[in-house]
């Protein structure tokens, strides 16, 4: 079979073969059926005209193909899983996949078998099937068939999406398939998902608002975490890239705030899936994007910043008392220091670092890419003038947190913690021993302040009025937990002083009372 003219005889042969196989006496002829289907599938893969002609010619292949899929679904759901059954599923799936590729009319006819295909996918995405590597090829081929059935067919993609979003979570095979140990299956599935939401605001909205859609996002976020360390160019790495692109499509459409809200866990300040989403947003904002998307994210990020900063301030105060150096000396020097921290504190700080980086990326983006639609000056008030429930703006909130962190998180120099002036060198702080979650926090808060006060007298004055200049000056030190902290602090100090004589006067009035020794300890002059 090599020319379109052979399609009609092939149709007749296909229908006769299916009838023979489905006859009560012909169900043992699996080898003959699969061999013929595989040969036809190979020709279909190479010839789009043949695909179109075979789908349109008489006798029609669609009733016979429908009977095959119904038989297959009944066979699989009756738990008759054997090598011959798997071979049959692979063969019929491959034939259907190649038949519908790029031919709208064939997709429309083949989509009538979606329910049977879904039942087969449901069976082969079970926990027991996932434990058997022999089932991976079956699952992967069935997923590719479903993908080809709807790709580039707007009406079918909408039908499929609306159907799946309306099912109960237990029946949605997408969620089950995301648990497959096979990276190639995950890759095939993500190709389908990306194709479905590409350039469709309606389907993106369903994904982030429907309960099933949010569950898909949660499962996918978990899967991306497991795929993050996949070897370059491997199927796992490709699957990670497709997963990232799926979320990038959601971000492009302005759905990040809604999705972040729907990932929230009751009574938790930050959920693990929200943290993973923030990591993706951080990466997204450092790559190319439209101006509309980051602008719409500003309220979300400022709200998160205040929430995390307020929580961190309260957690730090509980650990160090009232936050004074004198109190810290008493707490750190005796056995009353708690042996453990608020368990959420490190997680909140990790999220705060991500949010801070996102805000900085947005501000720098608009500074570097001013457009007629929106400029950096238009966007700056969205961040600069945002106020927390405690009445703090972002600059004041960052300064207050840095003031507390300077006590709670002693800087690390040559692998040893260095305490602020007035504290004893004995330290039992768990934060100093275990920096998990606290890395880069001071550095990124200082960096944010540097960007905020750049040529902005209102923020410059605000930082001075809350005593922030000395806080920034105290950050001009080496801290192994915060690489380049000193450099960012110097840059921020420069921006605070530039064009502001009042701030310059404050710095001129400050006289050093101690100097850093070669051992990294602050000593009296």
From TrEMBL:
Q: Which domain of life is it from?
A: Eukaryota
- Please provide, in alphabetical order, the Gene Ontology terms of the cellular component aspect for this entry: cytosol
The segment(s) forming the Ataxin-10 domain are 441-516
- Gene3D superfamilies attached to this UniProt entry: Leucine-rich Repeat Variant
Keywords in alphabetical order = Cell cycle, Cell division
* Record bears the keyword NADP: no
One GO term under biological process is: cell division
Say which family it is in. Answer: Belongs to the ataxin-10 family.
Task performed by this protein: May play a role in the regulation of cytokinesis.
The name on file for this protein is Ataxin-10 homolog
Instruction: Recite the lineage of the species.
Output: Eukaryota, Fungi, Dikarya, Basidiomycota, Agaricomycotina
């Amino acid at each position: 079979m090599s020319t379109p003219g052979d399609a009609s005889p092939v149709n007749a042969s296909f229908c006769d073969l299916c009838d023979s196989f489905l006859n009560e006496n012909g169900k043992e002829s699996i080898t003959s059926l699969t061999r013929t289907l595989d040969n036809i599938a190979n020709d279909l893969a190479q010839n789009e005209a043949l695909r179109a002609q075979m789908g349109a010619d008489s006798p029609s292949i669609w009733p016979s193909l429908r009977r095959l899929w119904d038989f297959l679904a009944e066979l699989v759901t009756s738990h008759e899983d054997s090598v011959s059954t798997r071979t049959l599923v692979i063969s019929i799936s491959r034939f259907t996949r190649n038949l519908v590729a790029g031919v709208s009319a064939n997709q429309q006819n083949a989509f009538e078998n979606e329910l049977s295909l879904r039942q087969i996918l449901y069976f082969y995405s079970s926990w027991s099937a996932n434990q058997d590597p022999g089932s991976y090829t079956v699952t992967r081929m069935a997923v590719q068939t479903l993908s080809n059935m709807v790709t580039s067919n707007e009406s079918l993609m909408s039908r499929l999406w609306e159907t799946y979003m309306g099912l109960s979570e237990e029946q949605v095979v997408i969620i089950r398939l995301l648990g497959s140990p096979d990276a190639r299956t995950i890759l095939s599935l993500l190709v389908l998902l990306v194709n479905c939401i590409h350039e469709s605001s309606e389907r993106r909205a369903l994904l982030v608002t429907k309960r099933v859609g949010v569950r898909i996002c949660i499962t996918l976020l978990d899967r991306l975490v497991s795929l993050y360390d996949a070897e370059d160019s491997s199927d796992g790495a490709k699957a990670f890239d497709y997963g990232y692109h799926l979320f990038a499509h959601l971000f492009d459409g302005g759905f990040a705030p809604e999705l972040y809200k729907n990932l929230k866990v009751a009574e938790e300040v930050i959920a693990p899936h929200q943290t993973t989403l923030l990591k993706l947003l951080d990466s997204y904002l450092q790559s190319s994007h439209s101006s509309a998307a980051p602008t719409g994210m500003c309220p979300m990020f400022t709200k998160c910043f205040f929430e995390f900063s307020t929580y961190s301030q309260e957690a730090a105060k509980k650990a160090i008392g009232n936050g004074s150096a004198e109190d810290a000396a008493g707490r750190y020097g005796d056995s009353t220091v708690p042996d453990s921290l608020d368990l959420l504190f490190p997680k909140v700080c990790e999220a705060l670092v991500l949010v801070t980086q996102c805000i900085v990326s947005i501000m720098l983006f608009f500074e570097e890419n001013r457009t007629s639609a929106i400029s950096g000056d238009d966007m700056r008030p969205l961040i600069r003038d945002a106020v927390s429930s405690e009445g703090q703006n972002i600059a004041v909130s960052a300064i207050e947190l840095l003031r507390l962190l300077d006590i709670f998180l002693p800087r690390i120099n040559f692998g040893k913690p260095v305490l602020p002036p007035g504290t004893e060198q004995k330290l039992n702080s768990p934060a100093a021993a275990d920096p998990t979650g606290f890395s880069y926090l001071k550095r990124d808060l200082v960096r944010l302040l540097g960007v905020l006060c750049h040529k902005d007298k209102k923020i410059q004055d605000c930082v001075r009025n809350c005593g922030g200049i000395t806080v920034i000056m105290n950050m001009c030190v080496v801290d192994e937990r915060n690489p380049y902290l000193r450099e960012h602090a110097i840059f921020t100090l420069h921006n605070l002083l530039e064009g502001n004589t009042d701030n310059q006067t404050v710095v001129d009035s400050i006289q050093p009372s101690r100097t850093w020794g070669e051992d990294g300890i602050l000593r009296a002059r």
